[in-house]
Amino acid sequence: MKKIILVQPPSPFLLIEKWNLPINLLYLKGFLEKENHKIELINLADIKNYLEAIPLNADIYGVSMFTPHHNLGIEIGKYLKKNTNALLVGGGHHVSAIPQDFLENSEFDIVVRREGELTFSEICNGKTFQEIKGISHKLNGKVSIILIEILLKILI
Length: 156
Prior knowledge:
This protein has helices spanning 23-33, 70-83, 93-97, 99-104, 117-124; strands spanning 3-8, 38-43, 60-64, 87-91, 110-112, 135-139, 142-145. The protein has five helices and seven strands. The termini are far apart. The chain has a seven-stranded mixed beta sheet, sandwiched between helices. Helix content is 28%, strand content 22%. A hairpin with a 2-residue loop joins strand 6 (135-139) and strand 7 (142-145). It has 156 residues and is of the alpha/beta class.
């Protein structure tokens, strides 16, 4: 069982940060808990020393980023790469739109593009990067983009 920490960066551009609930990470957390992974969600809203609030004991970190706070996400990635040996996974609208640029300019190992539940599950379950659809990743210092993507269909 892997220890996974999902991180919502702070959103200092909002008048009231706490109103930015990480619903996307809550969905992901619920999906992954069914697979017996130990999941922790860290919402860094309104935390001044936000880097110090991130536990450094995970096997995998998932950081969700929208465009306004992607620079904070990159800063979080640098901090985690310096202080852990964990796999760093970026997700969210911003990194989905420009995965190559993001990976070339960050410490992240992999980007999950679009809907992330199934794709992130495959990462957590130990599939190799080459086996996972819907990602971009670094391979020998170069960015590799796997073009076929999985879109999660929710049946009601």
